[in-house]
């Protein structure tokens, strides 16, 4: 009885004051993986993002979508203030996780990740699936990164093997206000200015987006119409401080 009550109290403390819709999403089951991106099990989104578990090595699968319009401009979003991790941060088009469902655990051709990307583009930005068909995505590579939450509350963080997905389509954006505060398209010069502003402390940028921008994006962007030249499915780029 004491153990149950103590656990309930700890759980209540973790979610106290958080947005109820975002708290409900913590129940979703993510895919646990080892350092080589081999599935090892499943657990809740909450467990995956608890810093206590991350510091013990818990690692899950994720994806980051970079959607460009036909003019070659990149769609960015500013995460809603309701988000539990990295609220108010600017980031790439859409960032999330494949879930423990029959459609999204399927690994052949990374189809599960692509289906998850299509689902989340609809959920976060209201982009209809027919505007972002599965065969329109280009899976480029994977990055392995880890970060504590900002603002650092000592409770939440990220530790992911992140599939980088590019897609070039003109789409209709109808943002979900609980997920997205605002959005904008940028060219490379405008993105550089945004990153400069973040370095001055004038705006916030998610750590995974910063890693991609600083290490890969200029090259990938220059090959936007010939992405086969920059695809690397064999490498998992290790971008954690302890690797």
UniProtKB/TrEMBL annotation:
It is an enzyme of class 5 (isomerase). SUPFAM superfamilies: Nudix (SSF55811). Residues 58-211 form the Nudix hydrolase domain. The keyword Phosphoprotein does not apply. GO terms for biological process: cholesterol biosynthetic process; isopentenyl diphosphate biosynthetic process. Its cofactor is Mg(2+). One of its GO terms (molecular function) is isopentenyl-diphosphate delta-isomerase activity. Signal peptide: none annotated. It comes from the Eukaryota. Pathway: Isoprenoid biosynthesis; dimethylallyl diphosphate biosynthesis; dimethylallyl diphosphate from isopentenyl diphosphate: step 1/1. One of its GO terms (cellular component) is cytoplasm. InterPro entries: IsopentenylPP_isomerase_typ1, NUDIX_hydrolase-like_dom_sf, NUDIX_hydrolase_dom. It catalyses: isopentenyl diphosphate = dimethylallyl diphosphate. Its EC number is 5.3.3.2. Keywords: Cholesterol biosynthesis, Cholesterol metabolism, Isomerase, Isoprene biosynthesis, Lipid biosynthesis, Lipid metabolism, Magnesium, Metal-binding, Steroid biosynthesis, Steroid metabolism, Sterol biosynthesis, Sterol metabolism. It holds the Pfam family NUDIX. Catalyzes the 1,3-allylic rearrangement of the homoallylic substrate isopentenyl (IPP) to its highly electrophilic allylic isomer, dimethylallyl diphosphate (DMAPP). Belongs to the IPP isomerase type 1 family. NCBIfam families: IPP_isom_1. This is isopentenyl-diphosphate Delta-isomerase. It comes from Paralvinella palmiformis.
